[in-house]
Specification:
- By secondary structure, the protein is α/β, with parallel strands linked by helices.
- It has a single domain, classed as NAD(P)-binding Rossmann-like Domain (Rossmann fold), CATH 3.40.50.
- It is 44% helix and 15% strand.
- It contains nine helices and seven strands, in the order E-H-E-H-E-H-E-H-E-H-H-E-H-H-E-H.
- Strands 3-2-1-4-5-6-7 form a seven-stranded parallel β-sheet, sandwiched between helices.
- Strand 4, helix 4 and strand 5 form a beta-alpha-beta unit.
- Helix 4 packs parallel to helix 5.
- The longest helix is centred in the middle third of the chain and has 29 residues.
């Protein structure tokens, strides 16, 4: 353990087998939270929970598609069964779908919307319902992107879905605030993850066009998430925080 800022907190996180989601789960657990993490890949989910547990954290894994309503309910139910309650919900699961607008198919669009929007919407609904039932509030965090703020070639569908999440955070202030539940979004810029590092030129390209001189690390994004979901930040709601090293201020294209 490295701290206890999140002692007496229970968090659920989707898409947390690796990358940003895993780092959020790890940091929360290292700060005292009990964490239930999800990933569509059972192997990744199980391994992630084992790693965090070996580090001294409390962590349990539930694998499955985070756009599936049955899996979403299972995530909530398992967290309550395992840890007693929920105070933090982070809808991190999402897919990036590159595609030319002129040839983008209905099937590809549905796939993006199913996970990025539907999955996040219903995780929020089910987690908020549990928080409301408990009666002492909580924090919900949606994972947006700088592509929800700035045009990016071949990411129209993805950017549309991420902008939608920011509007969801703003809209739900009306429903959630009476129950002392805050909801916000984080919009990461270019971030070094297992997936992006598969692109050989990714670190150099984004270091060159990011004002701070480097792409974000998963630690950069997770630190911002922990700020938003801490009980001391509960009066901040309906907001989106961009974490991109200044890229949206200038928005040069990587192409």
């Amino acid at each position: 353990m490295t701290g206890n800022r999140f002692s007496n907190q229970v968090a659920i996180i989707t898409g947390a087998g690796q990358g940003i989601g895993f780092e959020i789960a790890r940091q929360l657990a290292m700060e005292g939270a009990a964490v239930l993490l999800n990933d569509v890949d059972e192997r990744l989910a199980t391994r992630a929970a084992k790693v965090i547990t070996a580090m001294g954290g409390r962590c349990h894994a539930v694998s499955g598609d985070a756009s599936d309503l049955g899996i979403i309910q299972q995530i909530v139910d398992e967290a309550v069964k395992k840890f007693g309650f929920i105070t933090i919900a982070i809808a991190n699961a999402g897919i990036t779908s590159f595609g030319d607008f002129w040839s983008f198919t209905p099937e590809a669009l549905n796939k993006v919307l199913e996970l990025n929007l539907k999955g996040s919407f219903f995780l929020t609904q089910k987690a908020a319902a549990q928080m409301k039932k408990q009666g002492y509030g909580g924090s919900i965090l949606l994972m947006s992107s700088v592509t929800g703020h700035q045009a990016h070639l071949n990411l129209a569908a993805y950017g549309m879905s991420k902008a939608g999440l920011e509007m969801l955070a703003k809209s739900l202030v009306l429903e959630l605030s009476p129950n002392n539940i805050s909801i916000n979004a984080i919009a990461p810029g270019a971030t070094l993850t297992e997936r992006t590092l598969e692109e050989k030129e990714y670190p150099e390209t984004w270091s060159r066009i990011t004002p701070m001189g480097r792409a974000a690390t998963v630690e950069d994004i997770a630190t911002a998430v922990l700020f938003f979901v801490h009980p001391s930040a509960r009066h901040i709601t309906g907001q989106t925080l961009v974490v991109d090293g200044g890229w949206t201020a200038t928005s040069p294209s990587p192409y």
